[in-house]
């Protein structure tokens, strides 16, 4: 085998360095993890077990466990069993943990019992980034992404699915009853008849369970129940696929792509703009934020609430009227004249305001109608309305705010590209680190803790890429 690089004989004695420190070079990431965790006041952050009694069996210090988890999430090792294996064979972890190797149960219990502390560590790192001026631009992008829950689709029930299962079981019972009738006529063996009867009894028991579950599903406010992880929900993902998942909301800095704030939800994006933006305000300790989001967040009231909180939301509106499909002019073809309080149609006729307004959800709408004589003799009527009545336009009482927002957005045609490049980057990275699989934990409390660790690891890695190992160590020592 000449011409190849040759290895060392496995039976040959080798003199390894006596110190673990010699195995970990000065630029190794574990040195930054060690400096960061050692600088934290874990008792103040809410970790349990920081102070121990003089009697009893010694326990692992929370700093040891936190170092293990941060290293694991940075290196795509999130499960407690795999972390146990790594602690026993990974030289970097041996250095970081000083040769300590907790078992998987201890590792899992630490994550379960220290949700508050882990959340505060995640916030502390964002605070560190803020103090070294990483968020001076004051512009964030908000989006949600579906993370598959630890709940199989078969264990999620909706009224439609319940009706399908009940119908199928009833059909099986009917088939078995017919089989039982034929068995009497054809004089089958007692064993066959007994087996058939047992199958019928089992199916009847299953039917009773399904009907009980059906009542629970119909009584549920969201008309669905997940039996493995009750907090997860069946939601549409990309390509209209339906997956049992959580919708993770995040606010990301558009300059450095750092996650400023995040929240775990089980609803759609609609209505999440202001709550997520307010979380970002608290994290950055400033109100005058510019908030960019896609059309899935468009809600008049939500945009108004965001503006009332001191922020500048920039959210495009999708055309949901269906006018284009009907072959008629959509709303954008009508111009509002604020001074006269009228709408101008494509044929330069005026739509006058009505005398009453209506309430749609929480919004009060004023209706503007064309005059009958203008509409009846208009050459563009077939393109304007399919109804016998004149064309009507509805206007929200705070529509001026939306119009002003639209003017700001026209000055920045690259907004949606900036949003996409900013907020979708972290989601893709975290899902890649997860291995494109489901969340490891269940229920809101535990999933939030898991996401806090993911966000902490992502931000940590991002800062290492921006500042370098020594630069981040210096920032930690100067700030925390």
TrEMBL record:
Residue span(s) of domain Transposase InsH N-terminal: 19-112
Taxonomic superkingdom: Bacteria
Coiled-coil ranges (or none): 166-220
Any single Pfam family the record assigns to this protein: DDE_Tnp_1_6
Keyword vocabulary terms for this entry: Coiled coil
Domain Transposase DDE intervals: 344-464
Database matches in PANTHER family: TRANSPOSASE (PTHR33408), TRANSPOSASE DDE DOMAIN-CONTAINING PROTEIN (PTHR33408:SF2)
Protein name, entry field: IS1182 family transposase
Organism: Colwellia demingiae
